[in-house]
Amino acid sequence: MTDQDPLGIAGELVAEKYQIEHLVGEGGFAVVYRAKHVIWERPVAVKFFDGLSRVPNDYRETLQQQFLDEGALLTELSAQTSGIVQARDVGFYTTQDGRWVPYMVLEWLEGSPLEAILAHDQRQGLPWTETEVVGFLKRVLVPLEVAHRHGVAHRDIKPANIFVLGSAARSPDTPCKLLDFGVAKIISDHSTLSAALAKTGLSSTSFTPPYGAPEQFTRSYGATGPWTDVYALALVATEMLVGRRALDGEDLVQLGFSSANPDQRPTPRALGARISDPLEAVFAKALAVHPEQRFANAGEFLKATLAAAGEVASAGSVPPPPPASPAPPTAREAAISTPPPPSASSRESPLGIVVVLLIVLGFGTLVYSATELPGARETRRVFAPMVEDAKRLAQRIASNDPSGKPTPNEAGRTPPSTLPPPTVSPASDVPEAGPHECPWHTWRLNLPEPRTRSRTSTDPRLDAGGPETIRCMDVSEVSELDYAACSTCERPTTMGRTKTPRLSEYCASGRTPMAAPIRCVTWKQAVAFCRLRGGGLPTREELNAVGHGETPKGAVPEWTAERPRGSQSALGEFRCVVSR
User: Fold this and answer.
1) By three-state DSSP, how is residue 107 classified?
2) pTM over 0.85
3) Closest Cα partner for 561 from 529, 537, 544, 533?
4) What is 238-302 written as a DSSP string?
5) Predicted confidence band at 246 (pLDDT cuts at 50, 70, 90)?
6) 134-157 burial: b if 16+ Cβ within 10 Å, else e
7) Is the distance from CB of 518 to CB of 480 less than 8 angstroms?
8) What is the dotted CATH code of the domain comprising 111-315?
């Protein structure tokens, strides 16, 4: 065995299908080899977690199952977004000297880790611009939000775990991949196993200190979670802007102090970078000392970043550019202003066609929706807003106003969405919710007809109805973290004061709450929690509409707005629905 082949397996055939070629990378817990799939004749990366070879035999079976679960989770996540490296296989290998080593087969990537790119940039004295960093965050936060939406936190975000495909790293069109969702965290989460490994001299630290959040240095700041990834990625982005690492320190103690020092936050402007006010405010929140003051997940971080970038774009760059000659017209302005004005006849021809089509569409829709034929009610509900939009478009065309700006009587209004439910907005498109829109982390549910409250239900939303009522259902079930955090929720009383409700003590007291769905609350406690959020539990019909109405055999059904009967289990998962 050599430094070029620490496991002594170059040339070996693993699992009868992976021909190991040569070492390509080495870290604290793992070594990565390039290999060839002998059946597909395609390159793959095989990651051997040699750090786990020293796991005591008593814990090997537990580790094996957790390792397989981790591989299955990574496969599920990578199937939903191209921004997470794809897992192809997992297994266990015994080396020639008798070491038992788990391994994972990953897709082969062509490009460079961000760590190498930033090292080159820093040697050349070339920090990234604000626009380039915003483009980078958009590429990385989208796949990270997919993981957060599934209750999975990376907990070791750093430049070495972000891979840039191709050579144009600063281009907003160059894809990035998130690597290593962390088998090391399996060990650190398992206190008994972690203690056993410590006796062998193997550290079970599941994060990299220069990119560590305060709660990773000491649990006095609370549990780790998606907000920990937010902190680490903000440190990475700050490093890109300033051209050096954001946290000061040479050892664990110094880095921990720098991470949690309230008097010196590692934001871009504090470290000398020129950055706009809106984006500096975003970084200040992402790098807050206390987790509850940060963005809760990558989706919130992305939403704030896009909003800040929009403010920068509308206000101009920072600092303001010097006076210059007028900017060339945009494609839209050129299309409107450059050609000579068309004659009346040429303008009336397309206008007439548009008007005729709008009249036919509107008249046909109105006639059909007025009947009682199958689907007429749904047509009235879905196409009514579309017809209104068509009317406003015709008015703009008739008034020769191609700008698309709202007319005076439209100001301050946001037309209702006309997309058929249920849908979930992509993580890359997280607009502010309008009066008839649902937040990005919810499904939108259309209400077909007014309904009355069931005698067995306590959900006041069932009294609501009509085409203007929109229900927004949480995509994920309420997690242990959500429920534990609500031990300090407050709600107004009839006297205008607030009080803390008594939901119940956290039912898994004695251990750190997790991002997994909470399963230890009664129906009444679930009702109380959703009421504090301004809504209620979903009906069975609403769960069916989003594909969660069927309960797998042996699983505990979700709580619904209907009061459970005596034969139903006393405990279950739940999610909330809020009417807008």
Assistant:
1) strand
2) no
3) 537
4) HHHHHTS-SS--SSHHHHHHHHH-TTS---TGGGT----HHHHHHHHHHT-SSGGGS-SSHHHHH
5) very high
6) bbbbbbbbbbbbbbbbebbbbbbb
7) yes
8) 1.10.510.10
pLDDT at 261: 95
User: What residues have CB less than 8 Å from 307, skipping those under 6 apart?
Assistant: 278, 432
Return the amino acid letter for 23: L
In degrees, rounded to 5, the angle at the alpha carbon of residue 311 between the alpha carbons of residues 438 and 414 is: 35
Residue 348 has phi, psi (to 5 degrees) of -75, -25
**For the CA atoms of the chain, what is the radius of gyration?**
28
Q: What share of the chain is helix, strand, coil (3-state, %, to 5)?
A: 40, 15, 45
d(CA 230, CA 232): 6
Residue 53: what pLDDT?
74
Pick the CATH number of 13-107 from 3.30.200.20, 3.60.20.10, 3.90.550.10, 3.40.50.300: 3.30.200.20
Concatenated DSSP letters of 556-579: PPPP-SBPPPTTS-S-B----EEE
Q: What are the tens digits of pLDDT across the range 409-441?
A: 333 333 333 333 333 333 333 334 444 567 766
Task: Answer yes or no: is pLDDT of 359 > 50.
Answer: yes
Mean pLDDT of the chain: 74
Contact between 320 and 328 under an 8 Å Cβ cutoff? The reply is: no
- Say what the alpha-carbon torsion angle 549, 550, 555, 560 is, to the nearest 10 degrees: 20
* Residue 163 β-bridge partners: 113, 177
How many angstroms separate the CA atoms of 580 and 436, rounded? 6
* Phi, psi of 48, rounded to the nearest 5 degrees: -100, 125
Find the range with the poorest average confidence among 167-181, 360-374, 398-412: 398-412
**Domain limits of the chain?**
13-107, 111-315, 344-410, 431-580
Q: Which amino acid is at 468?
A: E
Q: How many CB atoms neighbour CB 499 within 10 A? A: 10
Total residues belonging to the chain: 580
- Highest mean pLDDT of the ranges 16-30, 278-292, 339-353, 507-521: 278-292
